[in-house]
């Protein structure tokens, strides 16, 4: 058995170790960040600073505005328009809850039950985006038109009596009432709720459902204890994506509402474009931003989803 | 079989089958797993072993047949009503709950309020007492595996089902967990039904192994019995390696069958022949590689009488430390595999050497010649 006793043939002489290549990539991440940072600076940071300075100016359109550090504008704006703020939060909140109630079952269906229909339903969810926001909202004007089939049916069924009693509708009208605005908001922001919900439901491992069933959880308990908690990231991002833009929205209140349903977005729009009171408009924008930031922070803290994402 | 009350906790599958459209995943199957045993369903992927397990768990509805546990027909019960728990492949731990709550899940669902003591005891049993407040993703694969076992065992199921529980672990950890699971099973005395494609795992752990192939149980028995007395070439090849020689039955004398293969004669104990051996008929003669001795042709005279022998030439040899594996070409069978313990190595046994292969006739087994001698070779690889 010679092969075992013989020494192995010497290995080929090792090539000299190549010099480590110059670290050329050190600056690459920053170069890649540059376009985004520039974009943010020019289109976000600068306008914000400009806006902030506007909010503390005084003067008039004829004489021009000057920065006078007049912070009282904030207080004046808030005391004059607090009902619109409350209304914005109320409408947007209601629309968000409605979106969640409507969107969750649909997202669940698409994620777990749709099978080969999944893509088709997804396209149907996204399809409204192919039409302009304005046109879609105007279509609701037709749907909710006075004496139209829907309103007629609701009237016959005495639904309007109930909603009228609650203050959501007025008489036999739906258009130009809070209900119409909330319907418009719900409709327009529903896809923003469904998509994140679907994404987080779809990521849930189906075996977790089996495991829960195997561990004596009935289907409803499985949903409460496993599926829903695991879909919380989707619930949180869906509600944020719905609530934040809905709070600042003015198109729905403008087209489907009346002067009694004006939201803070409408006030800002009017101040900027009709009254031309720039300081008040800017101050209102900042108050809205701060309010949303505060509510969102509290919400995320409370829902405690940091662990899940 | 009737459904009248059975005093034991046996798992009984009666004529159970599963079809998906035209595809039959499990052919009608009768199987009884005695209470307290460690039972393994062994087979390649797609052989129906996992489907069988899932039908016991209630996660899959059988197309026909019944499942009964300790005499109670549970075929129509949903999983959450069966006294059975499963350790899933890749564990399926709840990622949003910590280890304690994962283990407590089953108890809480059954409305048990004071779970602390039980959960702590169970975590101690699987040696994870320290990790109770961690989330699953913070644990290693082996630890997650033990959580999965604890989460199932704490419910004191009649049967614990394990679906390839060690598949995701590396080799060393897998060996360790095999012993661990065996220890736990002995300790708690619950029936374990273990699905695996790893023949070594099945043989190390189980009392009884059922080898499945293409939706059928090929053979059922203790690991040693399956290994020594395979009844089909599939079992012979799936459990370890076998050499096969096609031989003709020459004569029968008492307990022995004498066969002709090539120019020589081989002896096979009749008790070890599962095929009908009629004179003139064909039989596949099998022998395991480690049972064979290798002697250089020059020393052929030293081989004791009464041993089966065939001649050949070494085609290849590979040294693997504890043994050397030879591939020998012989007129009756190409690629004859021989494993020789490295005790006294003969330096003449190198590729190209003429050798005599010989073994004790008692180590020969006979199979029906009407089957593919290579069945199960690929699956086992």
Automatic annotation (TrEMBL), chain A:
Domain ABC transmembrane type-1, residue spans: 85-299
Keyword list, A-Z: Cell membrane, Membrane, Transmembrane, Transmembrane helix, Transport
Membrane topology per record: Multi-pass membrane protein
Region (Disordered) residue spans: 1-23
Pfam families, A to Z: BPD_transp_1
Gene Ontology biological-process annotations: transmembrane transport
Location in or out of the cell: Cell membrane
PROSITE patterns, per the entry: ABC_TM1
Top-level taxonomic group: Bacteria
Entry-linked InterPro entries: MetI-like, MetI-like_sf
GO CC annotation: plasma membrane
Transmembrane parts of this sequence: 30-50, 89-112, 119-139, 175-198, 226-246, 281-300
Cited Gene3D superfamilies: MetI-like
Similarity annotation: Belongs to the binding-protein-dependent transport system permease family. CysTW subfamily.
Protein name: ABC transporter permease
Native source organism of the sequence: Streptomyces swartbergensis
Automatic annotation (TrEMBL), chain B:
UniProt entry tagged with the keyword Cell membrane: yes
SMART domains recorded: AAA
Enzyme superclass (EC): translocase
Catalytic activity: ATP + H2O + polyamine-[polyamine-binding protein]Side 1 = ADP + phosphate + polyamineSide 2 + [polyamine-binding protein]Side 1
Function according to Swiss-Prot or TrEMBL: Part of the ABC transporter complex PotABCD involved in spermidine/putrescine import. Responsible for energy coupling to the transport system.
NCBIfam families found in the cross-reference section: potA
Name of the protein in question: Spermidine/putrescine import ATP-binding protein PotA
Organism per entry: Streptomyces swartbergensis
Gene: potA
């Amino acid at each position: 058995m010679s092969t075992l006793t013989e020494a192995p043939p010497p290995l080929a002489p090792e090539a000299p170790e190549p010099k480590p290549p110059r670290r050329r990539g050190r600056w690459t991440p920053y170069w890649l960040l540059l376009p985004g940072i520039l974009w943010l600076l020019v289109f976000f940071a600068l306008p914000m600073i400009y806006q902030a300075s506007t909010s503390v100016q005084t003067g008039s359109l004829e004489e021009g505005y000057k920065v006078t550090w007049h912070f009282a504008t904030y207080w004046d704006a808030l005391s004059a328009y607090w009902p619109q703020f409350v209304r914005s939060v109320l409408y947007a909140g209601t629309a968000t809850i409605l979106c969640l109630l409507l969107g969750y079952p649909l997202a669940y269906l698409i994620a777990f039950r749709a099978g080969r229909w999944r893509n088709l339903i997804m396209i149907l969810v996204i399809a409204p985006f192919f039409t302009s926001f304005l046109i879609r909202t105007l279509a609701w004007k037709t749907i909710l038109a006075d004496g139209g089939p829907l309103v007629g049916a609701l009237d016959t069924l005495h639904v309007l009596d109930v909603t009228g009693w609650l203050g959501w509708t007025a008489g036999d009208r739906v258009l130009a009432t809070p209900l119409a605005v909330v319907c418009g908001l719900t409709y327009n922001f529903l896809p923003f709720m469904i998509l994140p919900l679907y994404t987080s439901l779809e990521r849930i491992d189906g075996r977790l459902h089996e495991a829960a069933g195997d561990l004596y959880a009935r289907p409803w308990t499985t949903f409460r204890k496993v599926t829903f908690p695991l879909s919380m990231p989707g619930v949180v991002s869906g509600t944020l994506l719905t609530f934040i833009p809905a709070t600042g929205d003015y198109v729905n209140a403008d087209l489907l509402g009346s002067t009694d349903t004006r939201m803070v977005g409408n006030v800002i729009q009017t101040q900027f474009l009709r009254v031309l009171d720039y300081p008040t408009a800017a101050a209102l924008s900042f108050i809205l931003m701060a309010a949303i930031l505060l509510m969102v922070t509290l919400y995320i803290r409370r829902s405690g989803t940091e662990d899940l994402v | 079989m009737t459904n009248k009350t059975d005093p034991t906790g046996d798992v009984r599958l009666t004529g159970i089958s599963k079809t998906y459209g035209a595809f039959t995943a499990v052919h009608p199957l009768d199987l009884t797993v005695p209470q307290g045993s460690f039972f393994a369903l062994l087979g390649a992927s797609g052989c129906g072993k996992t489907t069988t397990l899932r039908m016991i768990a209630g996660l899959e509805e059988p197309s026909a047949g019944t499942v009964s546990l300790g005499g109670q027909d549970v075929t129509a019960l949903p999983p959450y009503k069966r006294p059975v728990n499963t350790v899933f492949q890749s564990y399926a731990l709840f990622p949003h709950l910590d280890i304690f709550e994962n283990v407590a899940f089953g108890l809480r669902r059954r409305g048990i309020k004071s779970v602390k003591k039980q959960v702590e005891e169970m975590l101690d049993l699987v040696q994870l007492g320290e990790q109770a407040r961690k989330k699953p993703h913070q644990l290693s694969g082996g630890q997650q595996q033990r959580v999965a076992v604890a989460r199932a065992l704490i419910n004191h199921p009649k049967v614990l089902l394990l679906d390839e529980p060690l598949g995701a672990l590396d080799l060393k950890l897998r060996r360790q967990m095999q012993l661990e699971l065996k220890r736990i099973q002995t300790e708690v005395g619950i029936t374990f039904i273990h699905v695996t494609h790893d023949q070594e795992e099945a043989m190390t752990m189980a009392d009884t192994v059922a080898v499945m192939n293409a939706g059928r149980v090929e053979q059922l028995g203790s690991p040693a019995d399956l290994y020594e007395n395979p009844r089909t070439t599939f079992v012979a090849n799936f459990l370890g390696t076998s050499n096969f020689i096609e031989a003709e039955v020459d004569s029968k004398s008492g307990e022995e069958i004498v066969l002709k293969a090539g120019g020589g004669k081989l002896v096979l104990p009749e008790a070890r022949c599962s095929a009908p051996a009629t004179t003139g008929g064909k039989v596949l003669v099998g022998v395991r590689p480690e049972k064979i001795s290798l002697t250089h042709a020059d020393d052929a005279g030293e081989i004791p009488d009464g041993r089966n022998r065939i001649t050949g030439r070494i085609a290849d040899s590979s040294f693997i430390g504890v043994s050397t594996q030879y591939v020998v070409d012989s007129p009756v069978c190409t690629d004859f595999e021989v494993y020789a313990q490295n005790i006294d190595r003969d330096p003449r046994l190198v590729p190209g050497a003429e050798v005599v292969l010989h073994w004790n006739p008692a180590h020969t087994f006979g199979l029906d010649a009407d089957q593919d001698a290579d069945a199960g070779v690929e699956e086992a690889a």
